[in-house]
Amino acid sequence: MKIVKDILPKELFDACVENFRSKLDTDCWSSSNFAWKPFLRQGIHGSTVSTDVPKTFADEIAKHIKPHAPEFSKLTCRYNVWQPGSGIGIHSDEHHLFGATIYLNEYWHPNAGGWFIWMDGDEFKAVLPDPNLLVLNDCNENHLVTTVAHDVPEYRYTIQIWGDL
Known about the structure:
There is one protein chain. The chain has helices spanning 10-23, 32-35, 38-41, 55-65, and strands spanning 2-4, 30-31, 48-52, 74-82, 88-91, 98-103, 116-120, 123-127, 134-137, 143-145, 156-164. The chain is of the alpha+beta class and 165 residues long. It is globular and about 35 Å long. It has a 7-stranded antiparallel sheet with strand order 1-9-6-11-4-3-2. It has a 4-stranded antiparallel sheet with strand order 5-10-7-8. 20% of the residues lie in helices and 33% in strands.
């Protein structure tokens, strides 16, 4: 697992957050309850909603991820809102060259759940969401997101990224 702090320049990160927030009250969102395979929702009682990141932002994100990722020809970027009770079951992203996350929340309390956990050999490791932090899985490592607490003051916001040939 590769972890890179401040992956995007501040201006681009702020523009992504502003664009994300502008979509929150629109009807462009799809739900994990319909889009994800059942094993990804096992033990998860909430829903994560997502929508496409505009191509102009995705192209800029690609430039900053390129030095850290395997060579790719297609990049898919989606904004995700991890609502209370949401999370994702253990999986590896093996059907992609890599999977990645950029965290958008300004602050995330450790008691709020939503921890990113992955297997490193026979040990579990964890990362708490931190603004503009990239977590990139290019070794098909098993990983999951713990359930987001029901009393969070703000939902967990991310950009989910998949690279393919």
